[in-house]
Amino acid sequence: MVKVTVWGSLRAATDGQAEVEVDASTFKEVLDALQLNYPGLTDQIEQGVSMAIDGKIYKDSWFTPVKPDSEVILMPLMQGG
Amino acid sequence: MSKIHVSTTINGDPTEFLCEADESLLDVLRDRLQLTGAKEGCASGDCGACSVEVDGRLVCSCLVLGAEAEGAEISTIEGVANGEDLHPIQRKILEHAALQCGVCTPGIIVAAKNLLAKNPDPTETEIRYWLAGNLCRCTGYDKIITAVMDAAAEMRGA
Amino acid sequence: MALDEYQKRDFKIIGTRPQRPDGIDKVTGRAQYGADFYLPGMLTGKLLRSPHAHARIKSIDISAAAALQGVKAVVTGNDFPGGAKGDTLDVQDHCLARNVALYDGHAVAAVAATSAKIAQAALELIKVDYEILPHVTSIEAAMPTGAPLVQEGRRGRKIPEEYSDNCTGMCEFGHGDLDAGFAKADLIIERTFKTSSTHQGYIEPNACLANMGPDGRADMWCCTQGHFQVRNLCAQMMGMDQSALRVTASEIGGGFGGKTTVFIEPVALLLSRKANLPVKMVMSREEVFKASGPTVASLTDVKIGMTKDGVITAADALIRYEGGAWPNMTIFPGAQSAFACYDLSAVRAQGLNFLTNRPLQAAYRAPGAPQSIYAVEAVVDELALELGLDPIDVRLKNAARKGTKSSYGPTYDEIGLIPLLEAAKAHPHYTAPLGPNQGRGLSSGFWFNFGGETCVSLAIDFDGSVTLVEGNPDIGGSRASMSMMAAEELGIPYEKVRTIVADTASLGHNEVTHGSRVTFSVGLATIKAARAAIKEMCRRAAKTWGIDEEAVVWEDGYAKPAGANAGDHEPLSLAQIAAKSSRTGGPIVGHHEVMAEGAGVSFGVHICDIEVDPETGFTKVLRYTVLQDAGKAIHPDYVEGQMQGGAVQGIGWALNEEYIYGEDGRLQNAGFLDYRIPVASDLPKIDTVILEIPNPGHPYGVRGVGETGIVPPLAAISNAMSHAINVRMSELPMSPPRVLKAIKDKG
After folding, report:
1. Chains contacting A with at least 3 CB pairs below 8 Å?
2. Among the four residues B62, C183, C676, C727, which has the most C-beta atoms within 10 Å?
3. So what's the pLDDT on residue A54?
4. Which helix (H) or strand (E) segment is C305 a member of?
5. What rounded mean pLDDT belongs to chain C?
6. C vs A contact (3+ beta-carbon pairs below 8 A)
7. Strand, coil or helix: what is B31?
8. Does residue B158 have a pLDDT over 80?
């Protein structure tokens, strides 16, 4: 099980919780588990999300490994200029 | 309406062209003579990217009519280097990394060359005010000023 | 896994300042930019634009225009085949309207003709029947319920009742207990800040040349920051396979984020298909201002609590952006970056986006961050002043550092903010004496920086020269940096490596040149491609010598036996191996494709001194210093260039630049005369200090540097102004009339 922090405006879909626990060992498994347990997150996940795993930001990288003690933060997809 | 026949000299070469009465020198240089070094940044004389010299005078070619080139000596960026030999201003701009995207660079070079021909030992302030008509959005002007001052020094033999 | 371990090493080429490969072309006028291409039989395309800020298009009669001799095609937005969906359809509508004009200057029809004159005459023959609708052009007007609606059905999810349906999105970041935090503060300051829409101000107007044949395949030349993105957007809009459209990126005359999308390119393709001839389109400067992609305007409330010792106990921000007539996501990086420079236990940043009848915003260097960080840094400055504390000391006390849980979520690794603040404090600028009507201001700044899709190919040519093929338009000198990295890895002179930017048919997808990603991502891929080529060259040497591959090492451009046991073989140079490559197995090419990750964040600190003329409100910038963490400066000249260029754009934003709309919803200052960007005589030299705190995610430690530089100037200049005239400023730009009014109101 790994703890995932969900950014503020998405907390409405996780019953107000800032942090949820899911059973997952890769980026994609985290997203799949989140969608399964919190269907309200589906729209945003389909639009695209990044994930910060132990401080490094990954953009939609499905097979990036996630350890049980990793810090995992769900983030919006980034754009630059 | 028939076109106007113009005979002129561009970068030392006798040149003839036909143009409409309301065509700018910039459009003639680019679209009729394939001299695309001068750029259109605004077509209203505000940015200096189209700078050329007409009879030794620095002008925005977007504000000069093609027909006005009749009998004049036009100098563009394409005529600044002497064959393979770059002008000191061109060399110094490269040396000091005084260009990023480079689109303002031809106008800046023509304007700086025109200044140094009149004033071989300008102060930093004089250079800044002379180049105030050449907009640059990439560099913040810092390295451009360094390059022009260094070129002036070399040309003076300092 | 694409993360690489940073390895400290001594460099031969990295960190030096060789001349750029495109330099001579650019100082002689030979370089070809977007408008410098010509094809035989080429037509000129022009757009008819709405004079109304909001109007339903009841009908468009193109018959007279189409009948004009010399006109080869007339199109409207309804001529697109219908392949575009979602965000792409929004972009398409922004390029060419279907049923409604949503901003002053919105294109409603397009013409391709044998000359510009005929095209212009044809535009005047197009009859459009408009039904004018009410418009809104400011956040304040768009926000409240009952405001004129810009578009139906765009209200975001779970938007509070008090906001109109023009509110398309909401986000919130942060952690901790704000109430408890504010309760601990000795001083709380709350202020509201306004910034106007600004434009990237690239000197080269958008330009393209589209050439579509009857077989449905097309070529396009355009100035762009991302030709793969152009290809994919246009292909979707035109209902084409991506591989049927080949886009070549010309040299680009500035972008800064504004050329990361499309404006005229899909229309040129549509015209070219209809006319069966090449169509060239170049935007006029007025069109660039009215109908490309300016930045979001902002209205931001910030509330920060501080103890009398300078510790921030709580920080809260409500950030409202408007980005034109279609939704955009800039509130996300805006809200995420607002407090990114601080180590806070109680923090919240909320963002709201509103529609207005203005052009769709595009990115502009660190999108969203200048606006939000301006507000935060202004309040921190005011708190420091009120408490009698040094502004740098206050920032040092609260600075984000390794181990800080950032305000947007992730925990920071090794970052450079504290070294930057210390360097700023020690810099002579910080203690230079100031005279009357002069003021000093300071600000921190931050940007995320990205990785993204990257493909490169590195060919070892028969004579030992090297061609590096990459897919990212060069906006800051990156080709030179790539050649340097390849040369460093291969152990050959810089002059032996030629880097080119190839078209979309030559490589796999490359993410747009944005997000300060190129030196990081393309550099990473270049290093890996070079290492792959080296591995192959060692293998060829091993075969030539009849020894094991593992027994060969690469050193200074030579394959050498690893030790005495490997045998006594003369080292083989890269050129020697290349010359024999056909006989030892075939051409030698290293390549690398990656979704680059691990980009390092980049912090900056700016100090500026200004002098205000109390009679005219005119501001002179006296001294300006930019300090930034580059991780590793591959080519220091280009890093300095990014720092100086970003700073000057920020200075313009702070002092003069703004979009001015009239009551009629029309843009009043669509030209360089009245949209006043900084000129050479406005500025002093810009001093630069580069620090190098390596990014653990890149072999050389590189961090992106292109964007951070525009973030600090807004607050640095605003704080300097507040000190110079003793009035706290909270609206940008601080143009002379506003400054004069502030001075007069103070009395």
Report:
1. C
2. B62
3. 87
4. strand C297-306
5. 96
6. yes
7. helix
8. no
DSSP H helices, chain B, are 25-27, 88-95, 105-118, 124-130, 142-156
Q: Domains of chain C, with CATH numbers?
A: 413-449+600-747 (3.30.365.10), 451-596 (3.30.365.10)
Residue C349: is its pLDDT beyond 90? yes
- Establish if A55 belongs to a structural domain: yes
Q: How far is CA C329 from CA C198, C320, C321, C356, C361, in A?
A: 17, 12, 10, 15, 10
Closest to C270 in 3D by CA, of C262, C261, C279: C279
Cα distance between the two ends of chain A: 37
Q: Which two tokens stand for residue C462?
A: 């028969």
Of residues C498, C502, C693, the one with CA closest to residue C602: C693
Q: Strand pairing partners for C169?
A: C353
pLDDT tens over chain A, length 81 residues: 999 999 888 888 898 888 999 999 999 999 999 999 999 899 888 878 888 898 888 887 889 999 999 999 988 877 666
- Is the ipTM, as predicted for this complex, more than 0.90? yes
Å between B123 CA and nearest CA of chain C: 12
CB-CB contact of C559 with C464 (8 Å): no
In this structure, the answer to whether residues B73 and B126 fall within a common structural domain is no
CATH of the domain at B32: 3.10.20.30
Q: Which are the contacts of C263, defined by CB distance < 8 A and separation ≥ 6?
A: C94, C95, C206, C283, C291, C292, C293
SS3 call for C706: coil
Cβ–Cβ under 8 Å, residues C734 and C721 = yes
What are the backbone angles phi and psi of residue C559, rounded to the nearest 5°? Answer: -85, 130
Contact partners for chain B, using 3 or more CB pairs closer than 8 A, are C
Report d(CA C685, CA C675) in Å as an integer.
Answer: 23
Contact between C500 and C468 under an 8 Å Cβ cutoff? The reply is yes
Test A7 with C408 for CB contact under 8 angstroms: yes
